[in-house]
């Protein structure tokens, strides 16, 4: 069979640019053994390398690949450039340096929407996850090309290859025939591909960080003669903490800081797994190269003077990354403080602040904030498990350390200070998975309302950057702190206790006034000081002095001792009537009494203490200096509890709609390349309504006419009164331009309105939409935007332009679960309007939940849709109807799931499909 090199007719027209898709799949990937492998589409110049690859394959591998003897002519395989068109045939290569170590390909099965895939991996590189990466790529590319299935045949004995298919997680069915196993992969399920890819990438990423976070031999390069220099302070920290081997490279000295030095890295008798580089910026790249040649596994680059200083520095930073990639080394920094692992006895920083061992892991993009966090943690007696200063994040990012800490037994809470989120889409998937295991508290600086997306829809105006970050954190269960204090306050709680699973709190104390302040602080933080049941109060009465108050707050009077306080807390916790407890105690004597021993080992609910007037405590219970801070911490921790509860049994709203077919439909509507003035285009009303109806969104019945006669016919068919809307070129908000007429009651009126429209808009009038008039109800807005970093977000708000003024909206990451959609509606300040506010009728919420879910699915499966606006949807007791909608589309380029940041990309460039535009 000859493979046609011709571009299949229509590929370009249907919005797929084969070359653009393939170009995006050229990048570096970490193999499961932590080494970096280049994965890319084949090129004409690969012919020789591929020939060599097939020549070297063992007979067994050849047999498994070709089901027989080495084929006399490998011509089909060796025309790498002949057929790389995603609609027909794709060959992907994995390379170790210049050597081909794996080939994966697919070819269209004629007349069907499926492609057949095959793989071979060099004998010496099997079990490194290479075939899996190739299969993932082929699956993504094939899906982008519109294939529904990828099929493959393997020999019955080829268990390794069958395992590969299974780990990609898409197997639809397998069957056995003539000694061959047939496998079919279903390409329709996007989430599944991404989720299982993250799982595999996870292990590789964690493995690649090991030389960084648990090294056995560290070499310091750049520590000089001056004992007060950064390099020497760092070396001294290292010497006093690290029990493994330490080496120093110095051109002239025999010892530096008491450590024997060698003149060149190559002089070391054994390779170091971690190199710490403190040399001047101009020398960093050449030192990194030396490290690579000496077999170093990871670099910590303390030196500043890179991208933060401008273009020349950015070039140097890219060179550094390229060098590290060449040798498969991971890089922390540059321009960073270094890292600490108290468990591993590792202090690779020049900080004078020492850290007590504990269970808090800290990642900071800023070195300065890192120092503040470390010293504040120490001041509050909070111990640290590891501390990583990310610096310019040229390679190792927050996503990497998060995954490392998720499985780190000594970490119980993660604190992150972020100035930017390099790859939010990836962060979303990783943080979500990590959050299930370990709480993450993040402080993202740069809160501001300035919406940067110059956009024309209401939806886009509502989804500002900061709201997007909120949506991202809410989706991933990350607790968002607003200040450094808040961050440490909530960390103190989450480090030792579970998150409250609700917002009910009990307050127990020894003085009335502070308890009232605490109750006020509780309600200011959305916490509920619930009244105890009669039964619980009765039980408490047995534990407290006669005059004590047993309702909530519980005032135990001045003379109470620690034992009674803990007894009361125990009874309250056992009742199940609250989700968190706080002890609010003030020193009522003249002198500070001996410290209270406050131990709390109950794992069902958290308990904290507020100690006032010089009261001190020891023990495990987190303590706070004011009631406000304690309640703030409990309130923030409760957002995690709510997230855990919501994710326990979540399912995405189902549409029962063929979303792949819908995507094809959208692609047909993309503007052809030659008439693209802008990349983005707004669909016509007819196309917009048509699409939404296919998706199952209820639209007020409509028809399009051009003449008065035609419109009268439509109006008579739809029934009076009806609504007439002029579709006018260049008009965005129709009613503002007099292009919407409501309550059109007769044929005569239809004719009048039509001629008025014609008169008014002239040539700009495309056509007229005749629409049934919806029954009165509450006007809602449901929309969506695709953030270039975060990906698709669904916005829910009150309809009309007022919503923008009020800022009353909820933002969700797509796809959306029914529970999230419901709570998004409930969070709106205008939600009472749907619930029969002031004698209005009650409007059912479920139809709105269904619409939100469907829009979420659409956004998740059709990346060509950039913006969507249903405004308004009229929600009435009889159901919901959308009466106006807008959709903006643009071509989309899929990107590989797994990719390390590329040297040719500026730092911060997203590398997943979200960054395609
Ligand atoms: P635009 O948003 O471009 O100004 P719309 O089609 O949203 O135009 O119409 C403006 C307003 O007219 C809507 O917010 C709604 O209040 C009312 N409206 C439009 N179409 C209908 C309809 N079919 N039934 C009832 N009210 C309608
Ligand atoms: Mg509108």
Write a compact overview of the structure shown.
The chain has 917 residues and is an alpha/beta fold. 34% of the residues lie in helices and 23% in strands. Helix 8 runs parallel beside helix 9 and helix 22 packs across helix 23.
Output the keywords.
binds adenosine-5'-diphosphate, 917 residues, 8-stranded mixed sheet, 26 helices, alpha/beta, binds magnesium ion, 7-stranded mixed sheet
Write the layout of secondary structure elements.
Blueprint: H1 18-23, E1 27-30, E2 36-41, H2 47-56, H3 59-66, E3 89-96, E4 99-108, E5 114-121, H4 130-144, E6 149-155, H5 159-168, E7 171-177, E8 180-186, H6 190-213, E9 217-221, H7 230-241, E10 245-249, E11 255-256, E12 259-262, E13 274-277, H8 281-293, E14 298-301, H9 311-327, E15 330-332, E16 338-341, E17 346-349, E18 357-364, H10 367-379, E19 384-389, H11 398-406, E20 413-418, H12 424-437, E21 440-444, H13 458-462, H14 465-476, E22 479-480, H15 484-496, E23 505-509, H16 512-524, H17 534-541, E24 554-555, H18 562-575, E25 580-586, E26 596-597, E27 607-612, E28 617-618, E29 623-624, H19 627-648, H20 659-668, E30 681-682, H21 685-694, E31 702-705, H22 708-718, E32 722-728, E33 740-744, H23 747-761, E34 765-772, E35 778-787, E36 791-798, H24 802-806, E37 809-813, H25 818-826, H26 846-861, E38 865-876, E39 879-882, E40 885-889
Parallel strand pairs: 5-6, 9-10, 9-13, 10-12, 13-14, 14-15, 18-19, 18-20, 20-21, 21-22, 23-24, 23-25, 25-27, 26-28, 27-29
Antiparallel strand pairs: 1-2, 2-3, 3-4, 4-5, 6-8, 7-8, 11-12, 16-17, 16-19, 30-40, 31-34, 32-33, 32-34, 35-36, 35-38, 36-37, 38-39, 38-40
Helix pairs in contact: 4-5, 6-11, 8-9, 11-12, 12-14, 15-19, 16-19, 22-23, 25-26
The structure holds adenosine-5'-diphosphate and magnesium ion.
């Amino acid at each position: 069979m000859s493979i046609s090199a011709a571009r299949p007719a229509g590929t370009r027209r249907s919005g797929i640019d084969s070359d653009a898709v393939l170009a995006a799949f050229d990048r570096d990937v970490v193999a499961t053994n932590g080494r970096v492998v280049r994965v890319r589409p084949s090129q004409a110049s690969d012919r020789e390398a591929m020939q060599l690859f097939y020549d070297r394959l063992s007979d067994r591998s050849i047999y498994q690949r070709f089901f027989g003897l080495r084929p006399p002519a490998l011509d089909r395989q060796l025309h790498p450039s002949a057929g790389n068109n995603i609609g027909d045939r794709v060959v992907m290569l994995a390379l170790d340096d210049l050597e081909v170590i794996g080939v994966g390909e697919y070819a269209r099965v004629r007349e069907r929407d499926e492609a057949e895939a095959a793989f071979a991996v060099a004998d010496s590189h099997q079990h490194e996850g290479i075939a899996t990466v190739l299969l993932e790529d082929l699956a993504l590319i094939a899906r982008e090309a519109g294939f529904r299935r990828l099929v493959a045949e393997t020999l019955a004995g080829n268990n390794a290859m069958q395992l590969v298919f299974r780990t990609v997680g898409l197997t639809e069915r397998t069957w056995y025939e003539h000694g061959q196993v047939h496998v079919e992969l279903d390409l329709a399920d996007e989430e599944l591909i991404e989720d299982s890819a993250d799982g595999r990438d996870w292990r590789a990423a964690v493995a690649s960080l090991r030389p960084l976070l648990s090294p056995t031999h560290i070499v310091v390069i750049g520590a000089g003669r001056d004992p007060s220099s950064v390099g020497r302070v760092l070396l001294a920290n290292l010497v006093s903490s690290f029990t493994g081997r330490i080496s120093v490279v110095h051109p002239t000295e025999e010892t530096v800081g008491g450590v024997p030095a060698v003149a060149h890295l190559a002089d070391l008798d054994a390779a170091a797994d971690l190199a710490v580089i403190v040399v001047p910026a101009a020398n960093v790249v050449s030192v990194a190269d030396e490290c690579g040649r000496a077999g170093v596994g990871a670099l910590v680059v303390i030196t500043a003077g890179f991208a933060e200083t401008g273009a020349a520095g950015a070039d140097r930073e890219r060179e550094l990354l390229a060098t590290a990639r060449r040798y498969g080394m991971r890089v922390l920094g540059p321009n960073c403080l270094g890292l600490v692992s108290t468990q591993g006895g590792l202090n690779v920083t020049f900080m004078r602040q020492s850290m007590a061992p504990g269970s808090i892991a800290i990642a900071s993009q800023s070195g300065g904030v890192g120092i503040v966090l470390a010293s504040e943690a120490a001041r509050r007696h909070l111990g640290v498990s590891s501390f990583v200063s990310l610096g310019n994040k040229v390679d190792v990012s927050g996503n990497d350390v998060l995954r490392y800490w998720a499985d780190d037994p000594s970490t119980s809470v993660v604190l992150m200070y972020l100035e930017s989120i390099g790859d939010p889409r990836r962060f979303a998937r990783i943080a979500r998975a990590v959050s299930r295991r370990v709480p993450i508290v993040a402080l993202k600086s740069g809160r501001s309302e300035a919406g940067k997306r110059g956009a024309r829809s209401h939806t886009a105006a509502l989804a500002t950057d900061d709201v997007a970050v909120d949506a991202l954190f809410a989706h991933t269960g990350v607790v968002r702190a607003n200040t450094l204090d808040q961050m440490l306050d909530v960390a103190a709680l989450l480090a030792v206790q579970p998150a409250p699973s609700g917002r009910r709190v009990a307050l127990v104390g020894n003085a009335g006034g502070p308890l009232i302040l605490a109750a006020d602080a509780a309600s200011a933080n959305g916490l509920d000081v619930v009244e105890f049941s009669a039964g619980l109060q009765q039980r408490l009465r047995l534990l407290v002095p006669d005059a004590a108050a047993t309702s909530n707050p519980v005032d135990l009077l001045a003379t109470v001792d620690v034992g009674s306080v803990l007894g009361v807390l125990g009874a309250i916790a056992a009742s199940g009537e609250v989700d968190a407890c706080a002890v609010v105690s003030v020193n009522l004597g003249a002198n500070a009494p001996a410290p209270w021993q406050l131990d709390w080992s109950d794992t069902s609910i958290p308990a904290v203490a507020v100690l006032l007037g010089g009261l001190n405590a020891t023990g495990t219970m987190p303590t706070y200096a004011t009631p406000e801070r304690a309640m703030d911490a409990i309130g923030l921790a409760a957002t995690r509890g709510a997230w855990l509860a919501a994710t326990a049994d979540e399912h995405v709203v189902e549409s029962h709609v063929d979303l792949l077919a819908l995507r094809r439909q959208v692609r047909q509507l993309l503007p052809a390349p030659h008439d693209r003035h802008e990349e983005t285009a707004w669909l016509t009303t007819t196309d917009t309504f048509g699409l939404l109806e296919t998706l199952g969104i209820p639209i007020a019945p409509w028809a399009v006419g051009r003449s008065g006669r035609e419109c009268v016919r439509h109006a008579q068919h739809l029934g009076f009164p009806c609504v007439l809307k002029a579709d006018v070129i260049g008009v965005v908000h129709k009613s503002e331009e007099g292009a919407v007429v409501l309550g059109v009651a007769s044929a005569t009126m239809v004719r009048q309105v039509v001629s008025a429209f014609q008169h008014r808009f002239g040539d700009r009038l495309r056509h007229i939409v005749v629409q049934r008039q919806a029954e009165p109800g509450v006007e809602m807005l449901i929309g969506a935007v695709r953030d270039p970093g975060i990906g698709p977000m669904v916005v829910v708000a009150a309809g009309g332009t007022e919503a923008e003024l009020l800022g009353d909206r909820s933002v969700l990451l797509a796809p959306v679960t029914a529970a999230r959609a419901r709570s998004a509606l409930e969070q709106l300040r205008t939600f009472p309007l749907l619930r029969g506010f002031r004698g209005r009728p009650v409007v059912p919420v479920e139809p709105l939940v269904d619409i939100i879910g469907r829009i979420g699915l659409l956004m998740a499966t059709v990346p060509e849709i950039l913006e969507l606006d249903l405004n308004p949807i009229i929600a009435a007791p009889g159901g919901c109807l959308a009466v106006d909608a807008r959709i903006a589309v643009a071509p989309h380029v899929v990107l590989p799931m797994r990719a390390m940041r590329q040297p040719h990309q500026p730092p911060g460039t997203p590398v997943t499909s979200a960054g395609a535009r």
